[in-house]
């Protein structure tokens, strides 16, 4: 097992405030706009129980990632942990899932933001691609100046988001009626199970911080604090929003596509649409900004390990700005965005690519954590519990895992090609080379030929 990177060796610039803002944004995403209504439709008032359950389930997952990030601050994030525990091929799979699978969610976030802005502002839907493009550009620009700038941008976006959410909830709270919480279980416990599965995706995003862990000034202190604050803030936001959604809207909570808009209208009809439009734009910008910081650092780290061309490795070091890797991410996002436009803004296929890759990353990442962390410690027990939960998520997502399987096969093919190349390089190139090695066999029984001594041993290096 490789020894951890001491925190003292990192030279990042992020503090607790910026890091916490990035964590909150990566979790408090576009689900804020739609999930309260969907969960209320599935479970009624008992959807509140579902939120509480998922907050509890998030603790071991977020805690495990926090322990790993603080102990092994590395831009490769989960892929680096997997490399340490399971080898190069598994690490390459993990990196490809994040780079080329999770990345499919970027245009989805931008288009969702555009859809909400168009809906609440009464603009022609033909403007959605234009607004989505406008949402994509600022996060790339912020990250081009480095994660420190992106961190402060994220702090501002997160503060605005929380302020608007608190304002909407405060305005709608007087409309809460006790009778709207009856019957509490209109669809039984099966409905609660459905609501839990919905909110599991809302609380995804804890892995993002692992990729920027090396950018913290003091990872061992800042990462656990940032994770704990983000858990409390995001949990309270979803819980309070769910209570107010059910209590104020009652049976109509699941009727509209944007329950937050209905809540805003209850408190202030004139400002409701504008408030939700602001939230949609802030959420989309914030999620994109947080994920791009992680994507760029991961791509540079993959290039360092030759899982991507080495040219993209610039900026992988702590404090570095991975602009080449960011440009690669831009190209990947542009391809996905073009496909979204060609599909007529049909988002389901791209959401499936994103979610299947995320589930695979979590499952493999928790297995790696169980192997890396010291047995019997709090972090190890959290990893064991999270691994069991992720196995259950993997079973639930079995029908949409084809994209993840394809990317895993691509990683295996890279390994096979590398080994074939090494095998050819280890063989004599011509007859003269074979003649030159012959005397080595006569030197002594204990000597190994120069050819054998210098041959690469891919089976023991762990590189693949």
From TrEMBL:
It is found in: Cell membrane. Gene3D superfamilies: Amino acid/polyamine transporter I. The keyword Nucleotide-binding does not apply. The keyword Aminoacyl-tRNA synthetase does not apply. InterPro entries: AA/rel_permease1, APC_superfamily. Its main location: membrane. It is a multi-pass membrane protein. The chain crosses the membrane at residues 21-40, 46-72, 93-114, 126-145, 152-176, 188-206, 227-251, 271-304, 325-345, 351-373, 380-398. Keywords: Cell membrane, Membrane, Transmembrane, Transmembrane helix. It comes from Microbacterium gallinarum. This is Amino acid permease. It comes from the Bacteria.
